[in-house]
Amino acid sequence: MWGIIISIVMAIIIGIIGDALVGNDMPGGIIGSMIAGFIGAWLGPMLLGSWGPEIGGFAVVPAIIGTAIFVFLLGLISKMVRRTT
């Protein structure tokens, strides 16, 4: 039970940090940050490997970088969609 709670809290924190690094507004508030954190925690270690401190099953540094990449790409796609409509 605590593992799930720690994973969710870490995903939210990682999502908020990744969003702050990029400067885009992540849609969905806390839930959007949590989803971005989980995607970043999957994407970051896949691209960069699993290194640095690990909390709640997340390699923190690659997860933050992966989240920043995801939020950046999401922002680019969002701007492209808004521009075409």
Could you please describe the fold and organization of this structure?
The protein has 85 residues and is mainly alpha-helical. 78% of the residues lie in helices and 5% in strands. The chain has one domain (2-84). The protein contains 3 helices and 2 strands; from the N terminus they run H-H-E-E-H. A two-stranded antiparallel ribbon has the order 1-2. Strand 1 (54-55) and strand 2 form a beta hairpin. Helix 1 packs across helix 2 (29-48) and helix 1 (2-22) crosses helix 3. It is globular, with a radius of gyration of 13 Å.
Kindly summarize this structure in a few lines.
This protein is mainly alpha-helical.
Question: Care to count the β-strands?
Answer: 2
Helix share bin: over 70%
Q: Give, in order, the helices and strands.
A: HHEEH
Count of discrete domains: 1
Low-confidence stretches: none
Structural class category: mainly alpha
Mean pLDDT: 84
Instruction: Please report which band the strand proportion falls in: under 5%, 5-15%, 15-25%, 25-35%, 35-45% or over 45%.
Output: under 5%
Distance between the termini: 45 Å
The biggest beta sheet reads: 2 strands, antiparallel
Arrangement of strands in the largest sheet = 1-2
Shape category: globular
| Count of helical regions | 3
Instruction: Give me the Rg, rounded.
Output: 13 Å
